[in-house]
């Protein structure tokens, strides 16, 4: 790797546009190439953002030996094949959230990347942001005492988008927005979850449009999480302790952290530093990792991506939401309901997969996912991820 670090963008949708614009504002990094299934679209994208190379196929893109990192900005349903294509060509990869359709796909991709000795990481942007580190520091200071409960929500009116509605695109609010509230809870409380209770509403194709999720941890802490693809929410994350509480404004691209004491008086506030879009931090993390020859980014290790996929698999199964190509999980209980989750890495759903709604959209379900290690604590993640507070992101994956 000589001179400027070269990034190739796979996909030419809205989220790819945000990344291209971000790369233009970074030092030592170049948006070198873009690949689309349409050469005309790739050429138009390249002209608009000053990208040197434009390719009319993903295979041509990943074959360019000058590319140091491929950014995958395609629909959830395409992530598995797109990442495997890039890795097979010897390219390091950062892939948009939700990382894959299910845990089995994620585990297979991580294994394949390891065999190729290449970096692959999930672009869940809030994991890489400075305010994530600040939140960890504030919680560690014991200023609100031991945190015991949190709430988080993320909602945008994006119900009209195909990638939300269509099973074949890995649709639903959970993988698009719920992934952010789950990551927020993980960064604050870790992953030692004892029970998950969830309920959702459905569109006509069986995809979840709104999700209500409650996590109970083995140490007695609780997280109450909501995600909606039909309503605009305040996007707040609130963490409650014995001596006060913390409000994170916009868990999708945190703007500030406000600390209140038990008398409801604000005693501290930390604001977001100036940023290009927020995407720059995940790219900087990849540059560091590649230079150090790491195969994962410490901000979002593979174990965390697997845990998030494991929980989302469980929530989908609890609510009878499956994608085309996924095998129906063997029901274990005589009443036809399955209220427990196997350990991480167990074959719950086949991979690779796509999307189909359950025949009988489920009632609220509770159960226990695998008890992942308490690896990270800290901050939020990228929901309707965009360069500012509510643009791009879920707006953005390439469905060309």
Report on this structure.
This protein has about 400 residues and is an alpha/beta fold. Helix content is about 30%, strand content about 25%. The protein is built from 10 helices and 17 strands. The chain has helices at about 15-25, 40-50, 60, 80-90, 105-115, 130-140, 160-165, 175-190, 280-290, 300-320; strands at about 5-10, 30-35, 55, 70, 90-95, 120-125, 145-155, 195-200, 210-215, 220-230, 235-240, 245-250, 255-260, 265-270, 320-325, 355, 365. A 9-stranded mixed sheet has the order 14-13-12-11-7-10-9-8-17, covered by helices on one side. Strands 3-2-1-4-5-6 form a 6-stranded parallel sheet, with helices on both faces. A two-stranded antiparallel ribbon has the order 15-16. Helix 4 (about 80-90) runs parallel beside helix 5 and helix 5 packs antiparallel against helix 10. The longest helix has 17 residues, at about 175-190. It is globular, with a radius of gyration of 20 Å. The two termini are about 30 Å apart.
Note the main attributes of this structure:
nine-stranded mixed β-sheet, six-stranded parallel β-sheet, alpha/beta, 400 residues, 10 helices, disordered C terminus
Structural class: alpha/beta
Count all strands and give the number.
17
Portion of residues in helices? 25-40%
Mean pLDDT: 86
Biggest sheet overview: 9 strands, mixed
Q: Per the principal axes of the C-alpha atoms, what is the gross shape? A: globular
Q: Rg from C-alpha positions?
A: 20 Å
Distance between the termini: 31 Å
Write down the secondary-structure element order: EHEHEHEHEHEHEHHEEEEEEEHHEEE
């Amino acid at each position: 790797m000589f001179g400027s670090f070269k990034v190739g963008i796979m996909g030419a949708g809205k989220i790819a546009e945000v990344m291209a614009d971000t790369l233009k504002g970074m030092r030592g990094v170049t948006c070198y190439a873009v690949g689309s299934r349409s050469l005309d679209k790739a050429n138009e994208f390249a002209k608009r953002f000053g990208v040197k190379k434009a390719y009319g196929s993903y295979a041509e893109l990943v074959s360019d030996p000058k590319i140091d990192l491929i950014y995958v900005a395609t629909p959830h349903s395409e992530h598995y094949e797109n990442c495997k294509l890039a890795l097979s060509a010897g390219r390091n990869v950062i892939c948009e959230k939700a990382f894959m359709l299910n845990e089995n796909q994620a585990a297979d991709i991580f294994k394949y990347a390891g065999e190729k000795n290449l970096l692959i990481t999930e672009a869940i942007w809030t994991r890489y942001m400075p305010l994530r580190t600040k939140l960890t520091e504030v919680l560690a200071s014991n200023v609100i005492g031991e945190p015991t409960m949190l709430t988080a929500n993320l909602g945008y009116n994006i119900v009209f988008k195909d990638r939300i509605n269509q099973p074949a695109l890995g649709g639903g609010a959970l993988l698009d927005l719920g992934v952010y509230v789950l990551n927020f809870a993980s960064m604050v409380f870790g992953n030692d979850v004892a029970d998950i209770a969830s309920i959702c509403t459905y569109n006509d194709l069986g995809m979840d449009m709104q999700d209500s999720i409650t996590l109970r941890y083995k140490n007695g802490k609780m997280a109450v999480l909501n995600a909606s693809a039909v309503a605009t929410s305040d996007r707040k994350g609130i963490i409650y302790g014995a001596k006060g509480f913390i409000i994170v404004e916009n868990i999708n691209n945190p703007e500030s952290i406000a600390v209140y004491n038990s008398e409801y008086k604000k005693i501290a506030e930390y604001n977001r530093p100036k940023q290009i879009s927020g995407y720059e931090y995940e790219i900087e993390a990849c540059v560091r990792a590649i230079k150090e020859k790491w195969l994962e980014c410490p901000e979002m290790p593979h174990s965390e991506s697997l845990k998030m996929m494991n929980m989302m698999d469980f929530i989908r199964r609890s609510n009878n939401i499956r994608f085309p190509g996924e095998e129906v999980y063997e029901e274990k209980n005589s009443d036809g309901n399955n209220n427990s989750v196997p350990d991480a890495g167990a074959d719950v759903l086949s991979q690779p997969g796509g999307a189909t709604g359950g025949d009988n959209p489920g009632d609220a379900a509770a159960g226990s996912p695998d008890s992942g290690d308490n690896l990270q604590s800290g901050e939020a993640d990228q929901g309707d991820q965009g360069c500012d507070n509510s643009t791009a992101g879920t707006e953005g994956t390439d469905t060309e």
